[in-house]
Amino acid sequence: MAAALNLGWWVFTTDYEGLDAQFSVGFQSGHAVLDSVRAILHEGPNIGLSESPLYALWGYSGGALASSWAAELQPAYAPELNFAGVALGGLTPNVSSVLRTINKGSNAGLAFSGIYGQAKAYPNMTHWLSSNLLPSKSEDFYTLAGGCLSQSSGDGASQDIFSYFKDGEASFFQAVPRSIFQWSGQMGVHGIPRAPLFAYKATSDEISVVADTNLLVKRYCSDGARIEYHRDLVGNHETEAITGSASALQWLNTRLNGDQVEDGCATEDVVLSSLSIGTAAVLGEQIFSILQSAIGGML
């Protein structure tokens, strides 16, 4: 955000989970982002924003979930909007897949927040959750799920989320969670982004496997989306948030300067980000130095 402000951009962030913290809920997140953009475009000119600005979206991980859903829902939900570009890093296209990937690992705590977020969004999921949690573990589940993300991540690490449910993993194959996860936890189902996309993903992402993003990109591209997709051969979900930011910011800067993208899709395997002199000019010397140091530590 600092780098974007240094470029003279207007920057807004969206509380896309809403007042109930509906973490991981695609529709809530996408609609909130689009409504926020509408509000900015309506009210911004009153405090100096251009009447016809170029505008874009950028999100990583949970932010990419919100931005991708916004891009996917935009043609039907907000057809008047016209994004110059959408940058998406660390995508999580399939929450069911994420659930299986992170279980018993260092990021297992995210599962508690994600399941609870879906339950707060959909009453039938609320009922299912209360009916299927083991009574002896229900209090512990809600303590983890209802805390801040750092708390659930820390205290929930290495836990088996399925052990909290009466039928274990089979509980999630029941009709209610299966339908909810397919409806509001699966990208590529409700539309094709009209805006050009820049996607970046570490091939060793430990939260959402790269195969899921590959499938989403293929799905979008098969229906005419315009995507530049970088698969980083070094790093993981956490490090890609740092190393991929340079390329994402450069790509967005090009879009917001009015340069158009060609039709079609292109996938490129990369090794970290290319921190060139041009990158320094976009990021600013101080932020560029921080990125250099971060990447140096990874190597």
Automatic annotation (TrEMBL):
It comes from the Eukaryota. SUPFAM superfamilies: alpha/beta-Hydrolases (SSF53474). Keywords: Hydrolase. GO terms for molecular function: triacylglycerol lipase activity. Pfam families: LIP (PF03583). Coiled coil: none annotated. One of its GO terms (biological process) is antibiotic biosynthetic process. This is LIP-domain-containing protein.
